[in-house]
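Renewal narrative, Specific Aim 1. Our central claim is that a sequence can be written position by position from structural information alone. The example that follows is taken directly from our test logs and has not been curated for this report. It begins with the structure tokens describing the chain, in the order in which they were read.
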């Protein structure tokens, strides 16, 4: 497997972040649900990972955590990868120290779900359904934004699921779980979601 160089990863992230900014401009001007154009499935793994990392970065930008989640106003925002996915880890670490609402991003890759309790945002790359469920249970009492790209993640108690529709990477949000965790998602982020899932009622948008 080819490993991206740091410069290649940074270039891919720059392009992916640019696509997100363009989508927000379109949303503001047209009031529609435009989403950033994601890489095609045939593109290299590093390109797909860069798009996912760009989404994670922007999920953090458009999420408000309780003040008690941070020791002070400039404490790091810990965003984590739970599981093994080398290309995504490389893309995420390239965003280290970028400011998000005054907090520098700090990439972490905990070995266990219990260790992820220090994370403000966690991408679950764990392929085993039982271990994903255990991770969600371990984080249930935390103000931790949980994200994954596994099927049914939002319906199973995760907060944001990345999914591909045609050539685009989209996402759905479990609004019930974010509210339970006292996380406030911006209206822009909610409007960009392809579906809003209410797990208490089983209804989506």
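The sequence written for that structure reads:
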């Amino acid at each position: 497997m080819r490993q991206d160089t740091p410069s290649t990863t940074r270039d891919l992230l720059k392009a992916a972040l640019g696509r997100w900014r363009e989508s927000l401009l379109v949303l503001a001007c047209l009031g529609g649900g435009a989403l950033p154009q994601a890489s095609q499935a045939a593109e290299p793994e590093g390109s797909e990972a860069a798009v996912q990392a760009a989404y994670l970065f922007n999920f953090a930008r458009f999420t408000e955590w309780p003040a008690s989640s941070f020791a002070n106003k400039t404490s790091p925002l810990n965003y984590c990868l739970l599981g093994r996915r080398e290309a995504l880890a490389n893309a995420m670490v390239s965003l280290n120290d970028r400011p998000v609402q005054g907090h520098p991003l700090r990439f972490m890759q905990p070995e266990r779900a219990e260790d992820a309790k220090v994370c403000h945002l966690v991408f679950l790359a764990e392929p085993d359904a039982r271990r994903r469920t255990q991770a969600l249970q371990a984080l249930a009492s935390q103000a931790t934004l949980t994200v994954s790209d596994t099927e049914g993640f939002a319906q199973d108690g995760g907060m944001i699921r990345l999914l591909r529709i045609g050539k685009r990477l989209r996402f759905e949000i479990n609004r019930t779980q974010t509210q339970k965790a006292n996380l406030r998602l911006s209206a822009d982020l909610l409007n960009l979601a392809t579906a809003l899932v209410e797990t208490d009622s089983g209804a989506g948008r």
